[in-house]
Amino acid sequence: MLSIHLNKLKFHSFHGMHEEEKVLGNELELNITVLVRNEEKIVSLKQTVNYVTLYEIIKQRMDKPTPLLETVAQDLADLITAFDNRISSVDINIKKLNPPIHNFHGQISVSYKKEM
After folding, report:
1. 47 in Cβ contact with 40 (< 8 Å)
2. What is the CATH number for 59?
3. Pick from 32, 56, 17: which is nearest to 111 by CA?
């Protein structure tokens, strides 16, 4: 089994329930791990999942404003697993770096794992 990791991906997106998030947006950080079924030595890009294409899938979805991060995580998992039938699972963590909570210091995040 091969793991492909896309770590600390940063996006300024307009996900959230609060009006200011819909107008101002928020900084989000994603960490995504994709497990790929692989039985042979990889010597060609055709034998693996292209992380550049994975990033483009993620970027396109992050550009679509959505009220709940849970929905974003589930949509990303569906899009990624549909991309290549060799993908056996995807694990997604989305952090909202500046949540609109008065006097809050920290981050919030959601995680979702989809197994095929």
Report:
1. yes
2. 3.30.1130.10
3. 32
